[in-house]
Design a protein that fits this description.
The strands form four sheets. The chain has a five-stranded mixed β-sheet with strand order 3-2-1-4-7, with helices on both faces. The protein has two domains: 121 residues, 2-Layer Sandwich (Nucleotidyltransferase, domain 5), CATH 3.30.420.40; 156 residues, Nucleotidyltransferase, domain 5 (2-Layer Sandwich), CATH 3.30.420.40. The chain is α/β, with parallel strands linked by helices.
Amino acid sequence: MIPVLEIGGTHVTAALVDPRDGRVTGRTREPLDADGAAEAILAAVRHCADGLSVPPGVRWGVAVPGPFDYARGIALFRGVGKFEALYGLDVRRALLHGLRQRPGDIVFLNDAHAFLTGEWSAGTVRGHRRAVGITLGTGVGSAFLADGHIRDTGPGVPPEGRMDLTEIDGRPLEATVSRRAILARYGDPAADVRDIAGRARAGEERARRVLDDAFTGLGLALGPRMADFGATALVVGGSMAQSWDLVAPALSTGLATGGWMPDDPGAGADPLPPGARAIRPAGSTGDAALVGAAHAAGR
């Protein structure tokens, strides 16, 4: 069993993972304020990790969003609306010397890469040779996988494998689809994305239009890249994927218009049959990034 951490914009999760079958045990979870002071963020991460029963000297896997120097373990968050207080901080050193049971080593990887690796090894897109993963939350995370390996170059792959570095009509992708873009477009400072989704389901036209425009735009940007990459599967995670009934129709329309026609529009949550071009939400357990982090540490 490999100890892992998943650090997100609103919470941190620690768990023990068996990378052979994706079994997750000993899970602990703590709220996290991405706008907080550096020590408060690190204290929450340490407290969560210390809830695991692990011996000292083992290797940990840590899934964390970017921008981040994953090889050295240094935070590079700036201008992304989260974890700004950690900029320039050696997170590897802080964890190596700060956890109750000191690790022997720590392997950091991008959270979207961890998510897709987990879904490919033990989840929704298992068996697909070429798959793409998107995470929708504070921003847009992305990963392109071929034969079990994350790719950051090649046909269809955006710069550094990051869809957030692409543009729609001359504007950054995240100016169209992200939490802050959706809230700005909707214009109600008291509403969060979950509230907008509820209003869309209740029949409010403005709420539905805002969400449709965001997810259709994502599909338009992603469709040509999916086609050029030769992907047969798209899996979507993150907090917004919990509103799959609203995400899937608009995203499928955008993908088809952009040149990647799904054989299955993704209304269901059953696993994808290998070879069928289809989209799905992340597995119901939400453990994919934990499993992916364990794979990285296990290597």
